Automatic annotation (TrEMBL), chains A, B:
Record PROSITE patterns: HTH_MERR_1 (PS00552), HTH_MERR_2 (PS50937)
Subcellular location: Cytoplasm
Keywords linked to the UniProt accession: Cytoplasm, DNA-binding, Transcription, Transcription regulation
Record's protein name: Cu(I)-responsive transcriptional regulator
Top-level taxonomic group: Bacteria
Segments forming domain HTH merR-type: 4-73
GO biological process: one example: positive regulation of DNA-templated transcription
InterPro entries, alphabetized: CueR (IPR011789), DNA-bd_dom_put_sf (IPR009061), MerR-type_HTH_dom (IPR000551), MerR_fam (IPR047057), Tscrpt_reg_MerR_DNA-bd (IPR015358)
Alphabetized SMART domains for the sequence: HTH_MERR
GO cellular component, as recorded: cytoplasm
Length: 152, 152
DNA sequence: CTTGACCTTCCAATGATGGGAAGCCCTACT
DNA sequence: AGTAGGGCTTCCCATCATTGGAAGGTCAAG
């Protein structure tokens, strides 16, 4: 086991946190690492390369399921280019529709701002609009599937 | 208690699911509803109006915390317009930065597609790029805070 | 031989929502 | 009057990626 690294080193060089490396192992995204006699995980340069692949895919917003599929394709020499493309294409169109939703929210909010005095008076067109029963506030239901945990 | 409605009716007319109405009550976003002798929740038209306000704000992507603040302002006649504006402004800039991230992911993916043959051959520039140690794939770390649960 | 930095596992929380089970309530129909 | 059904109740669990912490074992240097 020459050239093996601890999880901390693997985390530092791959950009994936040690926590997440253990997590990815537990959920089966990556293979279980070899261990020292003391139980420490050991990572080869090839493992770290895989971790980098995972991080880059996450940076592009791929889900863990997508990445699992991409990893399989990556390690399979007989893969067809179009299979990879299918995964990436699905992700891309999801991104595009998410972008469209966000832009429609931005537009609606900017519209609400148009008449906002931004002063000490209690009159506020933004609240008026939210309270207006005739206004569906761009009714497209957004909710959980597209993730507004804290930022949207 | 004339003019009172069950949670199902309130859900249907407000557009907020019964599940979520109970949830909002539990987390304190809305006040606990009155109950019948049998324990059924009862909603007045004013309650339903509040629920509509909540739904519209959610449709605009406001977080529950934001909405809680907006509700307080809405029910407070001495509010200052600028306080509402502060909440909405914070949300708007969060939306804008999220939009920017998504567009950078879209751009990166579209770039990967440029040389993709989309055929049966095993050669795939998308995977090559993900595996390329020299390529940080737009290193801006995205992750949990901006929500890619299933779509990104 | 201690100290401190690292590693281990396990459990919990985030945020908004959905799903389901087990059981009570109410109305309508036989 | 009894029953079928639908709606209501509470409680727990799952999602998704990630972080945090606690309790404890290991290793290297001082």
């Amino acid at each position: 086991m020459k050239h093996s690294h601890t999880i901390g080193e693997a985390a530092a060089t791959s950009g994936v946190s040690a926590k997440m490396i253990r997590h990815y192992e537990k959920i089966g995204l990556i293979e279980a690492a070899d261990r020292t006699d003391a139980g420490y995980r050991l990572y080869t340069p090839a493992d770290i390369h895989t971790l980098r692949f995972v991080r880059r895919a996450r940076n592009l917003g791929f889900s863990v399921d997508d990445i699992s599929e991409l990893l399989d394709l990556w390690k399979n020499d007989t893969r067809a280019s179009k299979d990879v493309r299918r995964v990436a294409d699905g992700h891309l169109s999801a991104l595009r529709s998410k972008a469209a939703e966000i832009h429609s929210m931005i537009d609606a909010l900017e519209h609400l701002f148009e008449n906002c005095t931004n002063d000490e008076r209690p009159d506020c067109p933004i609240l008026k609009d939210l309270a207006d029963d005739a206004n569906p506030a761009r009714p497209k239901d957004v909710g959980h599937k597209f993730g507004f945990e804290r930022v949207c």
